[in-house]
Amino acid sequence: RRMKDWLWWLIDVGWFSGWALMAQVSSPRIGLFQPAERTNPVTYDLSAQLVFTPPVGTKVAHVWIVKPPADAGQEVLAFETDPKPTLEAPDPLYGNHLVYFRLDNPEGAQVIRYRLKIRVWELHWNLDPTKVGAFLEASMPEWLRSESRVVADDPRIRAIAQKVAGDATEPFERVRRILQFVMDTMTYSHGECSLQASALHALTERIGHCSDYHGSATALLRSIGIPARVTYGINPFKRRSPSHCKLEVFLPPYGWVPFDLSETDKVLEQLAKSDLPAEVKAQRREAVLRWLFSGFRDNTWYRVTIGTDFPVVPPVAPNPPVIRTAYIVCDDKVLPDPDPANPNRMEFAWQLVWDVKPDKAVEFPWSLWLRP
Q1: Average pLDDT over residues 162-167
Q2: Domain boundaries in the chain?
């Protein structure tokens, strides 16, 4: 933490300038899209039970889960729920596929079951910084707006982003400096996180989990006119908490490119503490960062939602900051998100019990960097 506190002091006095990449940048139109290279498909068969206990006297329980979309990196082969949903509809802002259940006068523990079969690919953008073009702010207002947690219009956020971006004029270099800054100044922890992609939590506490890293990066980027968003999804393998989010930045002509800052930061931290020779550590650190900034989406994660602070359908509850695995409102009370990876919490308002079967052996790609 001392090094990260020192970096924050540099920001306060205006000395942080980042690391420069020399590049000549073209300016393709924002509508152009260069598809990622798609490799190594894995099919997951997942069954889950959402279990929750409404407070005594609840008249109506409102429950939302989200059906994953089909996109360039994933194909939904089957999706079914028990009971059948009350309503399925896209949210009116980003189009996330909301699956809604209304439970009247619920007594005791409630269970909603669903099954998902999904094929997921690795995606490689092989991003060339010299080909990233200029951002056209007017084209994407929904991805530049300030929100309840992604507070892009906070003067502190904007001041930090401007100092970190510094004198960089190349579009990708401005992005890279912001992302590097978030990793350099944040410490990963499930015990001290917001669970809500809170840029202000990251700003004041400088500690959190994936949503705080990526909510902070999104706010910083938006504050200087760069379209960005938090995307929540699932790691379909056994871990304490299956939900995980990534950052996506719109980089013409590549389109939406994902960056996983929290997993990268965890690997870099573990590398620094490892017994590997100093030369090997330095080589791997450089390789990990090169991999991150090339644009990569792993086949051990599938996307569920895009964006934050979006309205639910039907509009009977406040906008959730994020939907990690479910959103549950009993009468007018929002049940707090569980975090089974938090060592300080032992009681949860609800929980997701799940089992997953891949059609072949898969390995979490970040673990490969820590091999002897």
Answers
A1: 97
A2: 1-372
Cα–Cα distance for residue pair 250/228, rounded to 1 Å? 6
Q: Following CA atoms 113, 114, 115, 118 in sequence, which dihedral angle do they give, to the nearest 10 degrees?
A: -150
Domain 1-372 has CATH 3.100.10.20: no
The verdict on whether omega for the bond into residue 252 sits within 30 degrees of 0, i.e. cis, is: no
Nearest-angstrom CA–CA distance, 372 and 150: 39
Structure tokens that stand for 279 in this block = 């030369």
The answer for residues whose C-beta is within 8 angstroms of residue 332's C-beta and 6 or more apart is: 317
Query: What integer is the mean pLDDT of 123-139?
Result: 86
Decide if 186 contacts 202 (C-beta within 8 A). Answer: yes
The token pair at 172 is: 């990708």
Instruction: Count how many Cα atoms sit within 13 Å of the Cα of residue 291 in the half-sphere of its side chain.
Output: 20
For residue 256, list its beta bridge partners: 250
Closest CA to 209 of 218, 196, 222: 196
Which pLDDT score is estimated for 136? 67
Q: With 90 as the cut, is the pLDDT of residue 31 above it?
A: no
Distance (Å, rounded) from C-alpha 277 to C-alpha 300?
Answer: 29
pLDDT, residue 33, reads: 57
Q: How far is CA 270 from CA 85, 344, 366, in A?
A: 43, 22, 11
